[in-house]
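G., before I forget:
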Amino acid sequence: QITLKESGPTLVKPTQTLTLTCTFSGFSLTTSGVGVAWIRQPPGKALEWLAVIFWNNDKRYSPSLENRLTITKDTSKNQVVLTMTNMDPVDTATYSCAHYYFTSSKANVFDYWGQGTLVTVSS
Amino acid sequence: TVVTQEASFSVSPGGTVTLTCALNSDSVSTYYYPSWYRQTPGQPPRTLIYNTNIRSSGVPDRFSGSILGDKAALTITGAQVDDEADYYCVLFMGRGISVFGGGTKVTVL
């Protein structure tokens, strides 16, 4: 059974750096084709893809946020960490991590999601 | 890159509705590996369709995916009240980058 759970602060101040951790179980981030992605959703708005880290440590970022994001993994702890610098009130959103799969037979699939964590940016 | 979906759709119970997913810079094809998700309030998205037209495990066959013209499409045939939700498409843009559409709110009444 695959599960993912996000953890981190619920409130950050403008200009601060946000650090979120995704702790997962039921799969290995060393398996070919597997990744963990971060997606956010401002209240009442659409989903936005932020970043993904793959089994081979390849990392990809949303072009619009690339200069603010860093994604890393700790395979021994089954964790993926996302940091976002220079937080602004417009970054207020529910941040979710998801199991991502990309192989020739099953591609571009976010097939398991955490419940998400609401992060509010306010002074 | 902008992925566009209809803002909202209304369908009668038992009716059929087709949602679309368009790309501002190109025609959507299978090479974009479109996938579709359903989200109800307070819940994470659930995978419905991947690789354009493959239903995820446990998804009823009233959900189908396709390419219609230059867009990806999700068709709900025989809509049920439980299908009232937000529906999102995702396109793979290459180089490991994915982009979500703006979502379509489906009302069943």
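The interface with chain B takes residues 37, 39, 46-49, 52, 54, 58, 60-63, 96, 98, 102, 105-111, 113-116 of chain A (CB under 8 Å). The longest strand of chain A covers residues 93-101.

More on Monday.
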